[in-house]
Amino acid sequence: MKKPVVRFAPSPTGPLHMGGVRTALYNYLFARQQGGTLILRIEDTDQNRFVPGAEEYIIDALNWCGITFDEGVHLGGERGPYRQSERSDIYRKYVELLIEKGEAYYAFDTEEELNAMRERLEKAGSHTRTYNFETRKQMNNSLTLSPEEVKARLDAGDPYVVRIKIPENVEVKFYDEVRKEVVVNSNEVDDKVLLKSDGLPTYHLANIVDDHLMDVTHVIRGEEWLPSAPLHVLLYRAFGWENTMPKWVHLPLLLKPDPGAIMKNKGLRREMTDKLTDEFMQKHSEEVSEDMRSKVHSFVQNVLSNPSGFTQQLKENEKDPGFLKLAKNFLHGAFYGKLSKRDGDRLGFPVFPADWIDPKTGAKSAGYREAGYMPHAFLNALALLGWNPGNDEEIMNMDRLIELFSLDRISHSGARFDQDKMKWFNQSYIRNSSDEALLPLVKAELQKAELATHDDSLLLQVIALLKERVSFLPEFAEMAGMFFGDPQTFDQNMVEKRWKPESKDYLQDLHARWDALPEWKSQPLHDAFEALVAEREINSGQVLAPLRLALTGIPNGPGVFDIAEVIGKEASLRRISTAVAKLG
RNA sequence: GCCCCGUUCGUCUAGCGGUUAGGACUCCAGAUUUUCAUUCUGGCAACAGGGGUUCGAUUCCCCUACGGGGUACCA
User: Fold this and answer.
1) A341 an active-site residue?
2) A451-498 tens-digit pLDDT
3) What is the value of pTM for the model shown?
4) Residue A361 burial (CB < 10 Å; 0-12/13-18/19+)?
5) Catalytic-role residue among A137, A264, A497, A582
6) A311 CA, B47 C1': separation in Å?
7) What is d(CA A507, CA A513) in angstroms, rounded to the nearest whole number?
C-alpha cells in the first residue's frame, strides 16, 4: 500500500485549542504508525481574522507536545508553499478551470441582495435559505446574465465571487472511516462561494486544491466538517479528481465538561457568576439595560448553585420575561456543546496547550504547559478522548500510542472533557517518571520560585520524596521550601492541637540522642526515635507531631525521618532547638 | 426552520445476538503510612423510550425523545 500523506491545517486566527491538538495528534499517530508523511499547512485565507503571533504559537505549542512534522510552513518541503496566502495564483488557476468546465460561475450579488433573498425564502416558508439550483435563477450571476453583460461587468471591475454549480438532485454518497456510509442529496448542498471578492479562496476551495496537490490520502479532521464533506466530494468530482480523493475521517467533537463537575468548586462558582454576568450584559447590551444587572446576577447565581437541576432550570418558559429567555439561552451556550476557546477563561481550566497572550487586549489565557502538565500526560489524556485501544490500557507513552492507534477504534459521539481525569494522568506521569527525568523540569520550577538549584544530588533526593505527592510540576516548588530553609512560621492550628507542655522535653531528649548518632540516615534516626518512645513509655505521636512541626512548620509532607536525612544533621538539630525556643 | 451525526454508570469508555454488562476517573468505606499524598481492598452507579426482526436483543431495523454539529465572500 502507498504510504499515507496526512496534514494538520489550522488557521492562524488565535491559539490552537485542545481539540486542535487532538486532531494534530491523531494525524501524527496515524502518520507515524503507517510510515507516512505529516504536513503542517496554514490556512490563512481570511485576512480579517488573521491574528499576529498565532502561527508562531501553533508551531511552538505543537513542538512542546512533541508532535513533529515532515513538511510544513516551518520546515519547507517539496509540496510547498504551505501557507495558503502564498498560493493565491494556484487557486485562481483552478477556479478558472472549473468555470471553463461549467462547474462554477461568477456571481455579482451584493450582501443586501443576498440578505433579501434569504428573508424572502424564510417568509415564503421555504425549507432552505441558500443559494442553490433553484435560487440562483433569480440572482445576478453568469448563469442568468448574458455573456456580454458578464464580460462587461468583469471588465468594469465589478466585485464578484465565484460559486460552485451544485448539480440538481443527485445522491452524494461517500464513505467516512468513522461514520461509514453517509448519503446527502445535492439539493441540500448550496452553491458555496469558492473565490471571494478579495480574490482569495474560501476554505472549501483551498482545502481541496491543496489536498489534491499535496497528495493527501487521508483527511482527519473534526466532525464540524462533516456537513460540508458532500460539498468537498462534489468539488473533487467537478475537478475530475474523484479517483484520487482522500479518505474521510471525521473525529467526534471535544465537548465542554459536565456542568456538575465544574459547579462542585464553590470558589470557582462565585467567580463564574460574576464573569458570566459581565459577559451576558456586554453581549446583550442592546436588549437588556444596565439596571437589570442585579437580576441577571442573581439568576445566574441561582442556576449555578443548583447543579443537579441545572438543565431543568435552563428550559425556556413561555412566561419568562425577555431577559430571562436570553439569560437561559446564554447560560446553555456557556455550559453545553463544543469546547471553545473562551471556555478556559470562564470554566476554570486551560483549553490551550500553552499560555496565550491576546495581542490586542493583553489578556492572558492559561495553558497546560504553564499549569505544570507534562506534555505526554496531556497528549495521553487527549488521545483517549475519542479513541481507545480496545483493551484496558490507559497510560500509554507516545510509542505505545503510535503502536496501538487505529482509525477504526475512533468513537462516534462527542467526548466531554474531564479535568479530574486530566489531572490524574499528569499525576501518574509524574509518579512514573524517573527522578533524573524530572530533574530539569523541577529545576525550572524551582528557579521560577527563586530556590537554590545548584545541588543536583540534593534535588534528586527532594524529587524522590515529593513526586508521590504532587499532581502538577509547580507543586514541587511549593512543597520544596522545607528543604531549602528553616521554617519561618509554625502552622497555628497544628501548634494548638499537637504542641503540648511536655513536647519541649521530648524534643530536647531527641536532640541529644540524634546528636550522638554516628550516622545521619533515615533508619538510625528512626531507631533513635523509637528507643526514646519505648524508654519513656509514650505514644510515638506525642513526639512525631512536634518533631514534624519543628522541622517543617507545617502539618504534612514526606516522612519526617526522610526529611531530617535530606536536610542534614546541622539543620535538623538547629530547627529542633529553634522550635523548642520559640514554642516552649 | 432545514440538513447531517450521535445516544452503555455523573464523566471517558469496553461490548460487535446468549455476559453476574467489564475497566478508568470522580465519590464513599476500610487497611497501610501515627501527617499529607501514594498504595491496596471493597462499595455506589449505566444499556433514553416505543415498536419490530429473532428461540433470544445492550448489540440488527424503524419511529420518537434527547444531545451535538452545520446552515457566511469564517475556518
Assistant:
1) no
2) 888 899 999 999 999 999 999 999 999 999 999 989 998 998 888 888
3) 0.95
4) exposed
5) A264
6) 22
7) 10
